[in-house]
Design brief:
Shape: globular
Structural class: alpha/beta
CATH architecture of the largest domain: 3-Layer(bba) Sandwich
Radius of gyration: 22 Å
CATH superfamily of the largest domain: FAD/NAD(P)-binding domain
Number of strands: 15
Bound molecules: iron/sulfur cluster
Number of domains: 3
């Protein structure tokens, strides 16, 4: 089990947050690609949400056609590099690789994907150019993975694209919300800059679209609007004491860490509430920031946790302890958090001291935003309802994708949604 010292500078921070999947060198990529059996009806492809032709790009790497490999990847997934790094490959393509059946390590598909795409990003090799201008303008709200993928695909189809982004950087949660040992800001921004430079969509930063007047203005000026607004900040749980100093939402904590690195304040005794992947990320990060004790507290049994098993193990290996069947009742303390009171499965009270609480117990939904748009149906969980064939919403002018329709899934799902919606917009405007 790892023990981390508090990082005092960038070098120490980088050492504590060493990347989980480092870039392969040429020899490693050549050797690894030689292991592929180029299976017929390849199970790895069937498990890829973006339907990338995996055996083809692996063969291209092996025959020294690395640019061709990158093109194969980007033809299916505009966030090919980021997905190669952050996709939970163990439960997707690599988990399905036939080698697993023989107790042999599966192909490292994610790292090969990263190798090919990083190569063209570094060499600034343009693989695409925008389609002939068709004179039609599309607005995209949110420059996260769904919005960026939609923008790229629309540019190929000849549309003028304006992306409205509330923050000052693109990529949404890829920059602000993924653990820093999975991907760096530089890695994310290099890919989005690479795409924007060759496809030429506009991003209007620091411009939140949050009023009915703004939406009506967009409706007048654009032929269609794509909603890639994600989900919101950590939801208020209504726990007594939740507003005490030292209590923070997991999304806000991860964002602070991504932006401030070693200057982020982390307590000595940290309790993380939740059992999803965000809880695992936050717990791992608190441990890597040198907290003496990090306790992951989940209200149900271990088997019911939503987190991937490997994410839980990653947290445990970073030094995190866990307690199950502990339902939080109250956050105790004067003005600052001093402990959390839980009830266990027998109804007994359990008080655990701490000086920081990270809540990873769900995020705000976009219900208020959705209610600004006429005839836009949302389901009981406030996810926008779309036609799965083209991601068109019940208000025909609007299409949507990513977390706002699935409640929070992987980057690859958002990238797929953006591409699907762009083609849906194209068909709708040309019928
Ligand atoms: Fe290659 Fe494994 Fe995919 Fe077969 S399942 S094509 S061996 S990566």
């Amino acid at each position: 089990m790892a023990e981390y010292k508090r990082p005092k500078n960038e070098e120490e921070f980088n050492s504590n947050f060493k990347l989980k999947k480092p870039l392969m060198n040429d020899t490693q990529a050549h050797y690894e690609s030689s292991r592929c059996l180029f299976c017929y009806d390849a199970p790895c492809v069937n498990k890829c949400p973006a339907d990338i032709d995996i055996p083809l790009f692996i063969k291209q790497i092996h025959t020294n056609n690395v640019e061709g490999a990158a093109k194969t990847i980007y033809d299916s997934n505009w966030l090919g590099n980021a997905c190669g790094i952050v996709c939970p490959t163990g439960v997707l393509c690599e988990g399905a690789c036939v080698y697993n059946e023989q107790d042999v390590l599966p192909l490292q598909i994610g790292r090969l994907q990263n190798y090919a795409t990083r190569n063209v990003i570094d060499s600034k090799k343009n693989l695409y150019k925008p389609g002939a201008e068709n004179g039609k303008k599309i607005a995209i709200i949110g420059a996260g993975p769904a919005g960026i993928a939609c923008a790229c695909e629309l540019r190929i189809l000849g549309y003028t694209v304006d992306v409205y982004e509330a923050k000052d950087k693109p990529s949404g949660l890829m920059v602000y919300g993924i653990a820093p040992y999975k991907i760096t800001n530089e890695e994310v921004l290099d890919e989005t800059n690479y795409l924007q430079n060759q496809l030429g969509y506009n991003i209007i930063y620091n411009t939140a679209i949050s009023t009915k007047e703004q939406l009506e203005d967009l409706e007048k000026r654009y032929k269609a609007i794509f909603l890639g607004v994600g989900i919101g900040l950590t939801a208020h749980r209504g726990l007594p004491g939740e507003d005490k100093s030292g209590v923070i939402g997991a999304v806000e904590f991860i964002e602070k860490l991504r932006m401030n690195h070693s200057n982020t304040k982390v307590g000595d005794k940290v309790i993380v509430l939740g059992g999803g992947n965000t809880a695992m990320d936050a717990a791992s990060e608190a441990a890597r920031m040198g907290a003496a004790n990090v306790l992951l507290a989940y209200r149900g049994p271990k088997e019911r946790m939503k987190a991937y098993r490997f994410e839980y193990e990653l947290a445990i290996n970073a030094g995190v302890d866990s307690v199950f069947n502990a339902s939080p009742e109250e956050i105790i303390g004067e003005n600052t958090v001093e402990a959390v009171k839980f009830k266990n499965e027998n109804g007994e009270d359990l008080i655990i001291e701490c000086d920081m609480v990270i809540k990873a117990t769900g995020q705000e939904k976009q219900g208020a935003f959705c209610s600004l748009i006429d005839k836009l149906d949302v389901d009981p969980d406030t996810k926008i309802v779309v036609n799965p064939e083209n991601n068109q919403t019940t208000n025909q002018k609007y299409f949507a994708g990513g977390d706002v329709i699935n409640g929070g899934a992987e980057v690859v799902n958002a990238a797929f949604d953006g591409k699907l919606a762009a083609n849906g917009i194209h068909q709708w405007l040309n019928q």
